[in-house]
């Protein structure tokens, strides 16, 4: 079938017979894996694509999948995966009904060794792509991959490093001690030319020489040669964690082969986010749910103290909530990895199809605090046409249950409304999501609108993000053009009135005069901004980003957008502060604050925030009454 196909026409008859010996034809359905990321490189098979279309997927460390290239008829599949030797994780997935010839890998590699013209063609075809992928691994393996994340979470080593202090290996231990004392350093870089490092010497090595009465000896006799180091463009997480457990050392920083700086504990004394980096690193290395639980915001005392410091420093409440949400994302991703590994150990194997885990509600908007439950779902690649569709159903039913219950163990309570991946309504193939979305928007009623508002703020955090992006496109277009849905969204946001009188008196409830920050004010702002964003086709789920885009598109006056941001900042900060007190006192987390316990200044700030929320609600109500169709 392909003897005359380039580059196989470069083979001799005997070589062609050798390559095709034992070859079999494979037929695959759309979305079926030709090669799975869990396959060992030793067992990866080589395929020649006869018909159909397939895509190569790189699995990033953060759980996000990146489509690298498509395979077309005549392409060879599997060589790139073999050449990376497991350093990068790839899958190859059929995008439509596909047919391949599975070749004898051992024979193929032998022919490549003997036929240089043939091997050059095969290798040249992927060399440029391989170079770019190695850059991806080298510089971005710790990156979150989310372009919208703040620079706060993307710091590199060169942001914190200090200039190195060198000493020549021929200098005496006494010289080294004097230099350490003069420079107030923990260690010195040993180098002949103040560029290439041959070792490092610190107080422990000098003390060793002192105990031997050997101060005149050369530095080279006592220096360390096996040294932990980092590159200037590495991300800072690993260095921070290393220094935490090795406080008396310095870490050399390299640019290529030259030492350009060093890190020590004092390098981070003025960096408020080092706790976040260290916690993130520890999450990525966690192997059990118990480890993750101790690192989650509701159980991690160190992280709670860090959040308190941010509040005291005046950090915007919505930025703190975004930081908490980002940490929760990392916990979710690690839970999914642990759940997948458990499925393999239990004999279910790895996932047979691509899927995307989405979060909704406050986590979807990146506005989570300490008091939160789960709102999540699964978008699956279409698989109902597979022969073993029932087996796939069972797999994802089991996997989603594991994920939801593991998250519960980590401090994320199960959703009382059942908006979770383990429920059939929130776990289905893409085509079913698409069909249900059309029907949902046409037939939605007041009872379902609350579930719908939670869903509209969905965001992908793990797996094949393209599934979520395609669904987001459909959702945005349908909401934008549905006047009926706009009216229902408006009606829903008017259910809870902002409890403030015309002259500014806050209306509390119950004997303690408490106020539910979420129902009484935060959701009024979130809902109003969501409605305006829906009407104007804005895809972003985050309230602050929505406000910025509404202002840029001249749908909101910039002053109104800033007022809404300030109100949200204050309300979220009140809730965070209240939750920190409750955590410290081991009390249940709530959205309630007692007005009488607030200071005069706090009451003033709360009144201003409530007034802005009420103004937004009034604008929605005027629009609702003017255009009422429901």
TrEMBL record:
Work out whether the entry's keyword set contains DNA-binding.
Answer: no
Q: Where is the CBS domain?
A: 160-217
Highest taxon of the lineage: Bacteria
**Name the record gives this protein:** Cyclic nucleotide-binding domain-containing protein
Alphabetic keyword roster: Activator, CBS domain
What is the scientific name of the source organism? Aquibacillus halophilus
Q: Does the keyword Cytoplasm apply?
A: no
Cyclic nucleotide-binding domain segment(s) = 45-112
């Amino acid at each position: 079938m392909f003897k005359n196909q380039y580059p196989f026409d470069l083979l001799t008859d005997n070589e062609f017979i050798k390559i095709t010996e034992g070859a079999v034809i494979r037929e695959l359905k759309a979305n079926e894996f030709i090669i799975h990321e869990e396959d060992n490189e030793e067992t990866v098979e080589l395929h020649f694509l006869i018909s159909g279309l397939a895509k190569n997927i790189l699995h990033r460390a953060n759980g996000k999948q990146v489509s690298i290239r498509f395979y077309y008829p005549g392409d060879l599949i599997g060589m790139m995966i073999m050449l990376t030797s497991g350093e990068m994780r790839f899958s190859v997935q059929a995008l439509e009904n596909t047919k391949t010839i599975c070749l004898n890998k051992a024979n193929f590699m032998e022919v490549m060794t003997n036929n240089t013209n043939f091997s050059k063609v095969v290798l040249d075809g992927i060399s440029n792509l391989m170079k770019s992928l190695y850059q991806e691994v080298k510089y971005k393996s710790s990156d979150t991959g989310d372009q919208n994340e703040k620079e706060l979470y993307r710091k590199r080593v060169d942001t914190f490093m200090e200039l190195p202090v060198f000493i020549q290996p021929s200098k005496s231990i006494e010289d080294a001690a004097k230099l350490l004392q003069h420079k107030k350093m923990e260690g010195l870089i040993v180098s002949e030319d103040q560029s290439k490092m041959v070792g490092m010497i610190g107080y422990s090595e000098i003390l060793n020489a002192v105990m031997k009465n050997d101060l005149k000896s050369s530095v080279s006799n006592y220096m360390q040669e096996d040294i932990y180091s980092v590159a200037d463009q590495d991300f800072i997480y690993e260095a921070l964690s290393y220094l935490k457990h090795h406080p008396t050392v310095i870490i050399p920083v390299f640019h290529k082969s030259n030492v350009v700086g060093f890190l020590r504990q004092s390098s981070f004394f003025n960096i408020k986010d080092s706790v976040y980096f260290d916690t993130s690193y520890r999450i990525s290395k966690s192997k059990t749910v118990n480890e993750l639980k101790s690192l989650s915001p509701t159980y991690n005392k160190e992280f709670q103290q860090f959040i308190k410091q941010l509040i005291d420093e005046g950090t915007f409440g919505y930025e703190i909530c975004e930081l908490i949400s980002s940490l929760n994302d990392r916990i979710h991703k690690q839970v999914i990895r642990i759940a997948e590994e458990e499925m393999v150990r239990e004999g279910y194997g790895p996932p047979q199809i691509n899927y995307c885990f989405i979060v909704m509600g406050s986590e979807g908007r990146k506005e989570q605090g300490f008091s939160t439950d789960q709102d999540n779902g699964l978008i699956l690649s279409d698989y109902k046409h597979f022969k073993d569709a029932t087996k796939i159903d069972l797999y994802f039913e089991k996997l989603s249950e594991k994920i939801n219950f593991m998250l519960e163990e980590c401090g994320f309570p199960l959703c009382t409304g059942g908006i979770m991946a383990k429920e059939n309504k929130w776990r289905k193939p893409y085509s079913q999501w698409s069909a249900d979305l059309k029907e949902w928007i046409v037939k939605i009623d007041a009872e379902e609108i609350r579930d719908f508002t939670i869903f509209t703020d969905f965001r992908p955090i793990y797996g094949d993000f393209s599934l979520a992006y395609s669904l987001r496109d459909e959702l945005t277009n349908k909401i934008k053009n549905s006047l009926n849905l706009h009216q229902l969204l408006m009606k829903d946001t008017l259910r809870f009135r902002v409890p403030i009188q015309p002259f500014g008196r806050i209306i509390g409830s119950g004997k303690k005069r408490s106020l539910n920050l979420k129902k009484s004010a935060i959701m009024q702002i979130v809902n109003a901004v969501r409605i305006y964003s829906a009407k104007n086709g804005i895809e972003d789920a985050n309230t602050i980003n929505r406000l910025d885009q509404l202002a840029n598109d001249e749908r909101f006056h910039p002053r109104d957008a800033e007022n809404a941001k300030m109100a949200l900042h204050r309300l979220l900060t009140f809730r965070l502060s209240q939750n920190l007190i409750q955590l410290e006192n081991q009390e249940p987390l709530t959205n309630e604050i007692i007005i009488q316990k607030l200071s005069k200044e706090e009451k003033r700030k709360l009144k201003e925030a409530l007034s802005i929320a009420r103004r937004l609600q009034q604008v929605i109500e005027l629009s609702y009454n003017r255009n009422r169709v429901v």
